[in-house]
Amino acid sequence: MITQYILKLNLPLAKEPFLIKVKDPNQTLSQILGDYIQELEQNGENIVAFQLRTLLKSHTLMQNGAELNMGKSFQDLQSENLEVCI
What confidence tier does 82 reach under pLDDT thresholds 50, 70, 90? Predict the structure, then answer.
């Protein structure tokens, strides 16, 4: 059985959250989000990529009211799905 990992990123004022497929759970949150931003740019979604990059530079990721360490691997934070807010 193949386990798929999903990072659900809730943004203020966004109608829908970003659902980011995590290819390698050993990657850090920073790497996962950086790869996702590159993917957005490659798909021609430059404005969304710019907005997300800007938000990540100026805001903190939170889960259940606690700040997340961007240097921790996805697997260290939770086993399958992770929901975070900016």
Answer: low
Domain range annotation of the chain: 5-85
> Is 67 in contact with 15 (CB distance < 8 Å)?
no
* pTM of the full structure: 0.83
Which pLDDT does position 81 carry in this prediction? Answer: 56
- How far apart CA 61 and CA 78 sit, in angstroms, is 15
Rounded to the nearest 10 degrees, the angle between the axes of helix 29-42 and helix 46-58 is: 160
- Range list of β-strands (E), the chain: 5-10, 18-22, 62-63, 66-67, 81-85
Domain 5-85 architecture = Roll (3.10)
